[in-house]
Every structure is written in C-alpha cells, then in structure tokens.
Amino acid sequence: MGENRVNIDQPKHEIPETHGAPRVARPRGPGWGTMLGVWAIVFVMVWSLVREDQPTSLLDPIAVARPSTSRGSLTSDEKSTIDVFRQASPSVVYITSTQLRRDFFGFSVFEVPQGTGSGFVYDTDGHIVTNVHVINDAKRLSVTLADHSEWEARVVGQEWDKDIAVLKIDVPSERLKPLTIGTSNDLLVGQKVLAIGNPFGFDLTLTVGVVSALDREIKAITGRKIRGVIQTDAAINPGNSGGPLLDSSGRLIGVNTQIASRVGESAGIGFAVPVDIVNEIVPEIIRNGRVLRPGLGVQLYSAQQTQHLGIRGLLIDTVTRGSGAAEAGLQGTVLDARGYVRKLGDIIVRVADRDVRSANELRDVLDSFNVDDEVDVVFVRDDKVLTARIKLQYIN
To answer: Do 199 and 238 touch, CB atoms closer than 8 A?
Structure first.
C-alpha cells in the first residue's frame, strides 16, 4: 500500500475555528463610483446618437427678428372710440365701501372691505352719481378719481325705486370734470354705445356695444319696476354698476345698473337706467336729500291684509289731515276699542283711468304726475262705486 505523502512545500490553508455556522465568503460587486461612471458613458453615447440624428439643416445660427410693418392710419370708428374714452374717462370714478366690525372680544372696531363699484362726476360741486346697491349698508365710502387721488365720500341721498344715489366729495372744482349729459328719449336700437367702469376692480375699463333694446323693465332692490330701461350688449360685469353708458359722442345716456346672467358675469345682456330719469331725480336729491313724490294723502293697508279680507283694490287705513284725499272726502277704516274693524274704509280701484291693485301700481301711475296735478280716483264705499277728483301733494 502506498503512503500518503504531503508536499511540505505547499502552504496549508488553515480554516479558523468558529462557533456556529461556518462563514461563507461572497464576491463583491462594483462600487457606486464604477456604476456612475458606466451611466455617464451610456448617457454621452445616447446623446451623441440623438445629436447625429437631428438634421443640421433645421438650424440657422444667423436667425433674426422679422421687421415690423406700420399699421397705417386708424379707422374713423377707432379714432372716435379713442376720443370718447379720452374725453370721458377723467369723469369716471372708482367707489369702495367698508363696514365696521368688532374683534372677537369686542374691544376694538376695525374696517373690512364690503364692495366696489363705479360712478361718475355729475358737477363741479363734487356730486358723484352711482347705484344705491353699490353703497348700501356701507359705513365708510371713498371715491378714487381718474388721477388716483382718493377722497372720503358722504351720502347726499338715494332714490331706492330707481337705484340711483348721490355722493358728495370735497374736492377743488378744477380737479373735477363732469360728464356731458345727453338724452335717452331719442335712442335707436343698433346705435353704438360705450361703457366705462371698474369691473372686478380693474379701473377705467372700456367696453363697446350697441343698444340692444329699449323700454325694458327691471326690478329695483325695493321690488318696484324701473321702466324705460336701456338694454345693451356692451360687457357689464360686477364693478361696472353705477358707471356711465355713453353714446358715440361721449354723452351720458344711462347709468349701468344690472345684468342678466346665470353665472353672475357678463352674458351680453346689460341694463342701464336712462339718463332722462337720472337727470330728473339727481337735482331733486341734491336739493332735498330724497325724491319727493306726489301722493293722494292716504295710508293703505298691506296687500296681505286686504287679501285676507277678500278685498280687491287698495283699502284706505287713514287719510292725512289737510291732504287732497281729505278735501275730496275719502274715508279711512274705523276700528273698535279692541282693534277689530268696525267699518271698512274706501277701497281705491282706479286712478287716472288705470286700474290699481297694489301700492306699486299706484306709485307707477302717480309717478307720471307732478305735485298740484289733479287726478280722478275711483273707489268703492258700501258697495257703491264713487269718483273723486284729488289734488296731489308731496308725500314722505
């Protein structure tokens, strides 16, 4: 048998003793530096291929801007529009309103913005015309002129049924440029109109359109109808309210008031109170602080009360002493000690040849008359139809 020989010249690999499982040696992969280097090489190769695929004929290293061409003269219509804007825009103002609020603990009062709107200079005395709904419930009002100067404003008066208000600012007259007043009774559908205002707070914005319709009716915030309103497709948006509607000569023909829209923004249907109405009531507001309307001199029961009693017409509650109605012999309702009706007053059914069924209808009729005018009033008393001629007077 052969002997097992050991080559003493070959070094022995000693395996150290370990406790538990034997340690296994794993091959080590390339480091992060090596991987980054490989990706860098790949990126350069791909970029080179892309650059080689792009035709060099698409590039022009000497490309320059094209020369501009003169537009030539403006059209006569454009020149007219520009002239109207330059002439009228200094008369248009920006109105901001604020309310007073108390802090959480009620120790201090601070102002918070309420809304914005437009208006225009009516005269050199500092009177500004706008809409009632622009300034309604405001505790503080400020007017910003076209030169960006801001002035505190006070309310002179308001005509709620026509949505027209007059403000006053103390400004040197030379800084004010009143609008030229036009007429609205001779407007024609299709004629050009321009609106200037501050939609969404963008001051002195011009929009152009035409008279879309005439003699429209809209409701004031009181619920009463404003008749003879101008409809226009000139864009009117929130913030335009109270601003002027102008004709192509730059004359005031209306005050922008409302829009018809399902989203609350311009849909091409805007409305303006005609200037003939505005120019009639604004001087009266300046003189008296309000519009003095002609009336019969009677106090009426509400529509709900008359309907509850089954009455069709205007039931008189009381007759003002010394009024035209009192002189004509009209009678009011008599109540007993417990407040029950003992005798019904006269029931007005017709005034100046027009049937009346509500207080608003009566006002609509009387608005076409002046104080001291006389009107025929048809009323019912004890189931008898009677007629009286009544002299109109101012009412509060």
So the answer is: yes
Return d(Cα 29, Cα 10) in angstroms, integer: 31
d(CA 80, CA 295): 46
Phi-psi bin for 46: left (phi > 0), alpha (psi -120 to 50), beta?
A: alpha
CB 281: neighbour CB atoms within 10 A? 20
* Residue 104 C-alpha from the chain's centroid: 31
Instruction: State pTM to two decimals.
Output: 0.70
pLDDT tens-digit series, residues 356-373: 988 888 888 988 888 889
Q: Catalytic site residues? A: 133, 163, 241
Q: Give the tens place of pLDDT for each residue, 236-270.
A: 877 778 999 999 999 999 999 876 655 555 567 88
What pLDDT is stored for residue 52 in this prediction?
53
What's the distance, Cα to Cα, between the start and end of the chain in Å? Answer: 145
Per CATH, the homologous superfamily of domain 87-175 is Trypsin-like serine proteases (2.40.10.10)
CATH architecture of 294-395: Roll (2.30)
Rounded distance, CA 56 to CA 181, Å? 68
CATH 3.90.1150.10 fits 192-291, yes or no: no
Looking at the predicted structure, is the pLDDT value of residue 106 above 70?
no
Q: How many helices (H) and strands (E) in the chain? A: 7, 22
Band (pLDDT 50/70/90 cuts) for residue 205 is: confident
**Pure H helices in 192-339:** 275-288, 303-308, 324-328
Q: What is the pLDDT, as a whole number, of residue 99?
A: 62
Provide CATH 2.40.10.10 ranges for the chain: 87-175, 192-291
Residue 212 scores a pLDDT above 90: yes
What are the helix (H) ranges across the chain?
32-53, 76-88, 132-135, 275-288, 303-308, 324-328, 359-366
Residue 183 has pLDDT above 90, yes or no: yes
d(CA 371, CA 393): 5
Sign of CA dihedral 363, 368, 373, 374: negative
Per-position DSSP letters for 66-79, written without gaps between them: PPP----SPPHHHH
